Amino acid sequence: MDWIRWLVPWEFSPTLIVAFVLAALLFVRGQRVHHVNGARQALFWAGMILLYLSLHTRLDYYAERMFFIHRVQHLVLHHLGPLVLMAAYPGSVMRAGLPLAWRTRLARWRRTLAGRALQAVLTNPIFVPALFVFLVLIWLLPSVQFYSMLDWRLYRLMNWSVVISGFMYWNLILDRRPSPPAAMSPGGRVISPILTMAPQMVAGAVIAFTERDLYPLFELCGRALAMSAQTDQSIGGLTMWIPAAMTEVIGLLVALRTLMRLSATGRWGKGRVPPAPVGGQVTSP
């Protein structure tokens, strides 16, 4: 069937195959330890499918030859795919899928200075959102885009960097716990998508309304679809401006729901919990 050829990788990557297979095996094994409801399972596999289709199918060929398809690809890799997958909260499940000896070593390593330092960096509430935005904008610079699309090593670094930063970012925003132990406060999880959304929307608008061709590489390599450079660039800018922003709004709404739930249960915004009354009187703190 014709649609099967779309699943054939444009550039085969053994590393990507190994990463996807390991993630799937860990999640399946972890379900034997942790109960994972149907909704979380559906989100995990949907996220995996979205990322795989964007990274390892013939779509990659068109992403290298059409700017707007490249932006759709990065919308999935940076925003939608990691958001959907992290909404399944797969971390504890995948850790449970590790062999016991590996889980023990991982737990010990996380208590070391290096482990604590790495965790602090990967969950820093300022660094992670800043990196999330930076990696969107830096790869859009015309000179950077030019070389990253020509060099396969830079191209893969570009794609993997946005995926990893997406995981890091949505791991913070979708956290359902109060802070601490969560790295970012419930209020920060609501505000952060607004702050990260704004520069991406501005960049998308600039690209969409710029009349000169900012990315001539796609013209030099030959566009895969019969479309003018201006139209291609405008659609790509609009993809950054609207669908990417809407994806962040979804994350914002999830974070807002978490804030309201924590506030309603007295685990956020209530200050210090008063001591229990003794003999009808409230004891002093």
Concise account of the structure shown:
This protein has helices at 14-30, 38-55, 59-63, 67-86, 91-96, 100-110, 113-122, 127-138, 142-150, 152-173, 186-209, 217-221, 229-241, 243-264, and strands at 277-278, 281-282. It is mostly helical.
What descriptive keywords fit this protein?
two-stranded antiparallel ribbon, 2 strands, mainly alpha, 285 residues
Query: If you compute it from the alpha carbons, what radius of gyration comes out, rounded to the nearest whole angstrom?
Result: 22 Å
Question: What oligomeric state do the depicted chains represent?
Answer: single chain
The topology string of helices and strands comes to HHHHHHHHHHHHHHEE
What sort of overall outline do the alpha carbons produce when their principal axes are compared?
globular
**End-to-end distance:** 73 Å
What level of helicity do the residues show? 55-70%
Please state the structural category.
mainly alpha
Would you mind describing this structure in some detail?
By secondary structure, the protein is mainly α. Helix content is 68%, strand content 1%. It has 14 helices and 2 strands. A two-stranded antiparallel sheet has the order 1-2. A hairpin with a 2-residue loop joins strand 1 (277-278) and strand 2 (281-282). Helix 8 (127-138) packs antiparallel against helix 10 and helix 9 (142-150) crosses helix 10 (152-173).
Which helices and strands appear, and what pairs or packs with what?
Layout: H1 14-30, H2 38-55, H3 59-63, H4 67-86, H5 91-96, H6 100-110, H7 113-122, H8 127-138, H9 142-150, H10 152-173, H11 186-209, H12 217-221, H13 229-241, H14 243-264, E1 277-278, E2 281-282
Antiparallel strand pairs: 1-2
Helix pairs in contact: 2-4, 4-10, 4-13, 4-14, 8-10, 8-11, 9-10, 11-13, 11-14
